[in-house]
């Protein structure tokens, strides 16, 4: 799933390549991906992309005041094409292509654009056309952005204070903190040397400060690694930079212990027992507790 660092990089990528270009047309292949009908998606045709922004995990393309908002969800991705002039007409089907955005040809006659694709059977990729991004329910409900200057240690202290949620779930909740998903919550908790099942309200002031530092450092380092990369290279870069997520059975880079996993119905988490749980493995079942 693309998370804050990848979406931030895609934002910069599109600013460099799409801003200033005119939208020639938008082809919606997977009709379930389009979540709005007024204004119609055809209203974007002929407008110029004047800016690109990020809201949590949402991409926001400002087209002369009309916004194309994209959420890539769990298995979606953005694929840039330098020239779509020879692309085959899109047809609804079983392929991964969901939406194609065609831009007007440049001076050399190339017609660039990008395609939104989604793998798997659970189709959750979402596209909105709106005059105000805050009208998108997911954006309106977002918590603070961890890369914003207002996200201080005191702000995090207010968030965790009295919250009986396990810290792993809290970090992933977009209504509490925007942009962190399954992968980077694993990375943050490993950096903070904290159990994923620790109750947020039990954190001491020192632990909150450590968690804040881990959030900021982990995300900023990931953003820096991804900066300047082409969209097609972001997935591989993300995978190469992870220390615990999706590394079950491999040695921890910090202590050498074996990274372990807790599986759930539709996801899993990874952690290092030595770094995070005092050397004790977590039971591999929902709502696990430390084995006694």
UniProtKB/TrEMBL annotation:
UniProt keyword Cytoplasm present: no
Family of the protein in this entry: Belongs to the FPG family.
Residues in Formamidopyrimidine-DNA glycosylase catalytic domain copies: 2-93
InterPro entries recorded: FPG_cat (IPR012319), FPG_N (IPR035937), H2TH_FPG (IPR015886), Ribosomal_uS13-like_H2TH (IPR010979), Znf_DNA_glyclase/AP_lyase (IPR000214), Znf_FPG/IleRS (IPR010663)
Protein name: Formamidopyrimidine-DNA glycosylase
Cofactor field: Zn(2+)
Keyword Translocase: no
An MF annotation (GO) of this entry: class I DNA-(apurinic or apyrimidinic site) endonuclease activity
FPG-type domain ranges (all copies): 243-277
UniProt keyword list: DNA damage, DNA repair, DNA-binding, Glycosidase, Hydrolase, Lyase, Metal-binding, Multifunctional enzyme, Zinc, Zinc-finger
